[in-house]
Amino acid sequence: MGTTASQLRKDLLSEYQELTFLTKQEIILAHKRFSELLSKEDRNVPTPRVPMEKVLSLPELKSNPFRKRICHVFSTSDMKDGSLTFEDFLDLLSAFSDPATLEIKSHYAFRIFDFDDDGTLDGGDLEKLVNCLTGETDDTRLTTEEMRQLISNILEESDIDKDGTVNLSEFQHVISRSPDFVSSFKIVL
Amino acid sequence: EKVGEEKPEVLSPEELEKLKEEVDERKKLISTLRGKPWPMRKKLESHEFVEKYEGALGKGKSRKLYAYKVMMLKKWMKFQRDFENFKTACVPWEMKIKEIESKYVSYLFLLYPCTVLLVLPGCLLFFNLAEKALMGRPYGSMPRKTVPRADEANAMDFAVLWDFGGYAQYSVLFYGYYNSQRAIGWLKFRMPLSYFLVGVGTVAYSYMVVIRTMARNANEDGGGDNNSFNFSWKMFTSWDYLIGNPETADNKFASITTSFKEAILEEQESRKDDNIHLTRFLRVLANFLVLCCLAGSGYLIYFVVRRSQKFALEGLESHSWWERNEVNMVMSLLGMFCPMLFDVISALENYHPRIALQWQLGRIFALFLGNLYTFIIALMDEINLKREEEEVLKLNMTIWEASLYNGTLGVNSTAPPITVHPADIPRGPCWETMVGQEFVRLIVSDTMTTYITLLIGDFLRAVLVRFLNYCWCWDLEAGFPSYSEFDVSGNVLGLIFNQGMIWMGAFYAPCLPALNVLRLHVSMYLQCWAVMCCNVPQERVFKASGSNNFYMAMLLVILFLSTLPAIYTIVTIPPSFDCGPFSGKSRMFDVIQETLESDFPAWFGKVFSYASNPGLVLPFLLLMVLAIYYLQSTSKSYKQANLELKKKLQTVSRTINKVLTLIQHLLYSLFMSSYLSSPLGGEHRAHQGKSNHQIPPSATSPPAPRGHRIPGPLPGNQWQPAPSVQRVPNSQRH
């Protein structure tokens, strides 16, 4: 990034355009929104990082049940604290943009759903996933019996090689058949 | 990976060659870089590598061509990027759609017909302009372009214009205005030919667009071998990431929970099947009631159209506004109330909501279709009436002409032509203009009904619910009537039918598509406003089918069914003798014959006549039918092969699992037996029980690096020989 946070260098702008699915206007808007999240001290740092709490305050992410996972997946921080640089932020927006390919979206979706980061979706991941989707309050959660039934149904459908987990290729196979995925896996600033 | 930092002049030719190859490879990679799930840093590094060495390779006299190529490539990519930016800026209403999407489920069907709708009026406007501005004769110069003397008095009245009579009738809006002269102006613009070709061309283009969209959707579907991923899809794809509103998010959570619970229940209940006879009887009863409704509405429309013909004969002024607009009002009202009736009847049937939705849409479809066709049949009767009138008028024309000369001339002598003002010449009843007028009126009344329903049904209702809630006994917002939901499928159906009516009437009222574009713009803004301020999202969102192809298929059927009547009239009914671009011909398509004879060389006409010989056309049609049958059967066999492969994959992996666990057990027992029979073994038989618990046949996968790992032949199940080996040092410690 440039030395002043208020400007994005022209050559970087065109490189970002080539390397992501975003248009020029979208990158400039992203830069503006990112700069708003920075605190005063961070503005003059060469590659500033926005802490996860600030990112989660964005209106586009506030209501998303997977917001913490999204930050962790796109963060390149060594401390694994979910903080994002501007380039991470662009990666995020690019993966969630409209022209992004199915491969990219399904790849990142898999990583977001992989709560324990072990490369496959096992029963524990699926259970956490369902709990995220059914909301935070206790009366909307599923009972243990329903949960067990649901997870066994899902594994029966998606687990092609019957190893008890859903790996990336099985996940991509299921997702590629879904008509809703590409249109629902979108975030626009 | 990276070649050293030496200056390029120092590199030997082979090294230079290798570098070039590597740069080219990297360049290929770059075009796909944005599709790679790498963090930005890594992508930037790859990019930098290419840039650095590309620049270096460009130096030196013999590399000029290479540098030039690189520069052109860069410029081309920049142009592509700018064009893409420009395209996104051009999509109309993009910000509005994004705003709505954040509140509602994203559903972008509207954009598909946009392209069709925008091209059609483009074509039709073009040749309309050609007629009027470039070379046509202006208003008032010909009888077909002038209001008859008798009607002149009230030609500008609003009531008459609203009815599309008066000046509107004799304008470019309708078929009757156009001149039938073969070649107009100094450009020799072939008016009748172009009218015909544009009419046919727009229909062909519409077919192409619809079918191409369907093919694309079918491709994305992935062959449709297996649609039974219901639970997985609910799990992985049900959350809409565009939701930014906490209220909508809560709604979404609730609906997801409900859908999970329902799906689980349904799966359990699908095993048991009680009281099937009652259900069957109720369903038959419901279908019978629906058929009665459809028949009733068809008869009503027919009756009303006949009555309106009677009114027209008696003169329109002697009737009230209702009686004059009866047909359109009745059709619109039926379109509004019958679907509600179908909804109530479908409560008898007790279907799964998605199936019930499909039945509902099918019935509304049948209703609209029935109504439209009844309308057209009634219109046919009117056309016949008008043609009879025309015959009578033709007879009277000769008498009238004779009277002009006042009997001063004999039968065969010539005389200086007497100039008569075009408004005074008696006019034939132009049946084509009448058809165009009917369709335009229908669409206008349909629009009015939609807007009024929107204002009353949505806006007024929302206002009442909001303000009366303070002084009402029960909670208006939660119970009845509450805010109206945004009914996606109903609106899409309405759009489809509107488009069908346009296709039907476009040949006889050329400016109809242009009017429709205007109407769509207004509808769009009105609907956007209503959606954001008065509607709530649907509580349970059921899509009518897995893909968008359901609505596309309906559009295709409507396209076919609406162009049918137009084609029928073109082919069978002779055009009017004094109005429109085909006046005087015996059939409208004779214009093609004429053009072939006069504008093309003789051999072309011969070839064409051979090609249109039934002896050639029939075998060709047969060939196409056979080709379709062949493609159908190959596609079925591919689907079958797909399923077989999947089953094979499952059995193979299951077998391998079994074999591996077997080997694991075998090795372990071998080890144990060899260990126990050794001198040390005797002391440790006590520990045997403990060590038994240490066997983890790891069915779950070991920790693997995040994400970038390519799954091996047995994804997720990696047999680890480690546990059995580790036990040796363990036991030796004692």
Automatic annotation (TrEMBL), chain A:
The keyword Repeat applies. GO terms for molecular function: calcium ion binding; magnesium ion binding. The keyword Magnesium applies. Keywords: Calcium, Integrin, Magnesium, Metal-binding, Repeat. InterPro entries: CIBP (IPR051433), EF-hand-dom_pair (IPR011992), EF_Hand_1_Ca_BS (IPR018247), EF_hand_dom (IPR002048). It holds the Pfam family EF-hand_7. Residues 101-136, 146-181 form the EF-hand domain. One of its GO terms (biological process) is integrin-mediated signaling pathway. It comes from the Eukaryota. This is Calcium and integrin-binding protein 1. It comes from Oncorhynchus mykiss (Rainbow trout). The lineage of its organism: Eukaryota, Metazoa, Chordata, Craniata, Vertebrata.
UniProtKB/TrEMBL annotation, chain B:
This is Transmembrane channel-like protein. It comes from the Eukaryota. It is found in: Membrane. Residues 430-545 form the TMC domain. Keywords: Membrane, Transmembrane, Transmembrane helix. The keyword Magnesium does not apply. Residues 682-734 are annotated as: Disordered. It comes from Oncorhynchus mykiss (Rainbow trout). The keyword Transmembrane applies. It is a multi-pass membrane protein. GO terms for biological process: detection of mechanical stimulus involved in sensory perception of sound; vestibular reflex. Belongs to the TMC family. Residues 689-698, 717-734 have a biased composition (Polar residues). Its main location: membrane. PANTHER family: TRANSMEMBRANE CHANNEL-LIKE PROTEIN 1, TRANSMEMBRANE CHANNEL-RELATED. GO terms for cellular component: plasma membrane. One of its GO terms (molecular function) is mechanosensitive monoatomic ion channel activity. The chain crosses the membrane at residues 104-127, 158-177, 189-210, 284-305, 326-348, 360-380, 550-571, 607-631.
